[in-house]
């Protein structure tokens, strides 16, 4: 029978054997999979694992600093790279969801490649790929690496993509990854974190993305997520977040009519993201969130709650 303890023991010795004294580069995202992969590799090869954590400026409020700090506390050899401005530049004027994803993907590749080049003589690229990713990349249009390749068919592959790939979690399901993470004593704050899309808040800002919109959405999102935690609802929800809609609505403040942004809150229950039900959050909670958001976040005068399930609605709005 499969146990996290046996998996860790076996995988660490296999990684030692396979990698030897060579250097490995790994991109951390703050999510469960890349974090568990990093700790596992760190256990096997120590500081020969070079982690890179890129701030694309589209993360949750304060997430970059707080997660980077946690990684350092865990003893990982990690470099934080703040490339926010570069991603915002790449997104300027882009409204189409797939174009946004491409712009973000390309910017990430460039930033990561430049950082990987700073590591002398690196031989391996480690990834937190898990079993469902493997299946998906077979069934969906060649998967992420095919997408990356198609973006770079002019100048050839970025160099880091030519490294030998190490994927220690690729036979595991999500719940097994969490159990391995617990075995490795990774904090619940990281292991219990909701899934968050790679393109981040960019696909929760419908239409074009600006720094100001990101700041507004970060504030709204932080109130909602912290609220879920305070009300002990966070762990009952599979994924939650806020969406900034590209419309303004009329409001009233004192004697004045206002014309400000609308945000939608979304919280879903799911096991794998393939299907999802909207969560029946308590009215008291929604009332509190709505009041707090409208009172505290300048530029927002209306909050709605998304009561659509997947299918046919998707979890993200873009
Ligand atoms: P949808 O919106 O397709 O989302 O129901 C299912 C799950 O996938 C996440 N998602 C993404 N993750 N890059 C990612 O890394 C993306 O472009 C992307 N789009 C959606 C979404 O957050 C949900 O967990």
Automatic annotation (TrEMBL):
Q: In which pathway does it act?
A: Purine metabolism; GMP biosynthesis; GMP from XMP (L-Gln route): step 1/1
Occurrences of domain GMPS ATP-PPase (ranges): 2-193
EC number from the UniProt entry: 6.3.5.2
- Uppermost EC category: ligase
Q: Where does ATP bind?
A: 29-35
GO cellular component term, pick one = cytosol
Which GO molecular function entries does the Swiss-Prot or TrEMBL record give?
ATP binding; GMP synthase activity
* Keyword tags: ATP-binding, Glutamine amidotransferase, GMP biosynthesis, Ligase, Nucleotide-binding, Purine biosynthesis
Catalysis: reaction(s): XMP + L-glutamine + ATP + H2O = GMP + L-glutamate + AMP + diphosphate + 2 H(+)
Describe its function. Catalyzes the synthesis of GMP from XMP.
Known partners and oligomeric status: Homodimer.
Protein name (Swiss-Prot/TrEMBL) = GMP synthase [glutamine-hydrolyzing]
Q: Which residues of the full protein are shown?
A: 193 to 510 of 510
């Amino acid at each position: 029978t499969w146990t996290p303890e046996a998996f860790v023991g076996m995988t660490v010795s296999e990684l030692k054997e396979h990698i030897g004294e060579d250097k490995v580069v790994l991109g951390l995202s703050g999510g469960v999979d890349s974090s568990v992969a990093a700790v596992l590799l760190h256990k096997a090869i120590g500081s020969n694992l070079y982690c890179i954590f890129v701030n694309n400026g589209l993360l949750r409020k304060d997430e970059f600093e707080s997660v980077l700090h946690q990684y350092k506390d865990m003893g990982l050899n990690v470099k934080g790279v703040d490339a926010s401005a570069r991603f915002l530049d790449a997104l300027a004027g882009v409204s189409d969801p797939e174009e946004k994803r491409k712009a973000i993907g390309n910017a990430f590749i460039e930033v990561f490649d430049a950082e990987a080049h700073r590591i002398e003589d690196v031989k391996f690229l480690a990834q937190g790929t898990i079993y469902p990713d493997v299946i998906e990349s077979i069934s969906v249009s060649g998967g992420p690496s095919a997408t990356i390749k198609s973006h770079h068919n002019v100048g050839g592959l970025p160099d880091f993509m030519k490294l030998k790939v190490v994927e220690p979690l690729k036979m595991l399901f999500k719940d097994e990854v969490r159990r391995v993470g617990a075995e490795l004593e990774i904090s619940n704050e990281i292991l219990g974190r909701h899934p968050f899309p790679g393109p981040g808040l960019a696909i929760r800002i419908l239409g074009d993305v600006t720094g100001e919109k990101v700041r507004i959405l970060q504030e709204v999102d932080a109130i909602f997520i912290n609220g879920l935690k305070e009300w002990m609802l966070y762990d009952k929800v599979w994924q939650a977040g806020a969406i900034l809609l590209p419309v303004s609505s009329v409001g009233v403040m004192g004697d004045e009519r206002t014309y400000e942004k609308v945000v939608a809150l979304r919280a879903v229950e799911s096991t794998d993201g393939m299907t999802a039900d909207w969560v029946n959050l308590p009215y008291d909670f929604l009332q509190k969130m709505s009041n707090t958001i409208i009172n505290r976040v300048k530029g927002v005068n209306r909050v709605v709650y998304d009561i659509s399930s997947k299918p046919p609605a998707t979890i993200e709005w873009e």
